[in-house]
Specification:
15% strand; 39% helix; 117 residues; alpha+beta; 5 helices
C-alpha cells in the first residue's frame, strides 16, 4: 500500500506534498472530504503501535476540549481520531509496511529516504 492521508487546507501538508517527488502508485486521501474509516485507523495503529502516536496534541479542538487534563486511553484516542479529522497528526504516509506520522523534520527526512530506496 502506498497512501498519503492529508488535509488539503493544511499549509504544512501542502508544502510537504509539493516538496516530495512522489513515485507513481500513491493514493492521496483528503481526510476532510473523505474521512478515515475504522479499518484505516486500525491499519495505521498496527503499523504505529498506538493510537496516541497518530493523535495530534496540537489540534485546536484538543485545547478547546481541555483534553490535556483528561486521562485518555488508547480507546479514547481511537474514538477521537474517528470523530474528527483534526485529531490525526498529519500527514500520515504509508509505504507498504512503514508508516510516517506528522511533519517533523526527522519524519520527513526518513520519508524521503524511504522513497529513494
Amino acid at each position: 500500500m502506498k497512501k498519503v492521508y492529508y488535509l488539503k487546507t493544511c499549509n504544512t501538508c501542502t508544502r510537504i506534498i509539493n516538496a516530495i517527488n512522489w513515485p507513481s502508485g500513491f493514493e492521496f486521501q483528503d481526510i476532510k472530504q473523505n474521512p478515515i474509516t475504522v479499518k484505516q485507523v486500525e491499519a495505521m495503529h498496527q503499523l504505529s503501535g498506538s493510537y496516541e502516536a497518530l493523535f495530534s496534541k496540537r489540534a485546536k479542538l484538543y485545547k478547546e476540549m481541555d483534553l490535556k487534563n483528561a486521562n485518555l486511553t488508547e480507546t479514547d484516542f481511537k474514538q477521537y481520531l474517528l470523530e474528527h479529522y483534526t485529531f490525526l497528526s498529519r500527514p500520515v504516509v504509508i509505504i507498504n509496511h512503514q508508516i510516517f506520522i506528522g511533519s517533523s523534520k526527522k519524519t520527513i527526512e526518513n520519508l524521503k529516504a524511504a522513497l529513494s530506496e
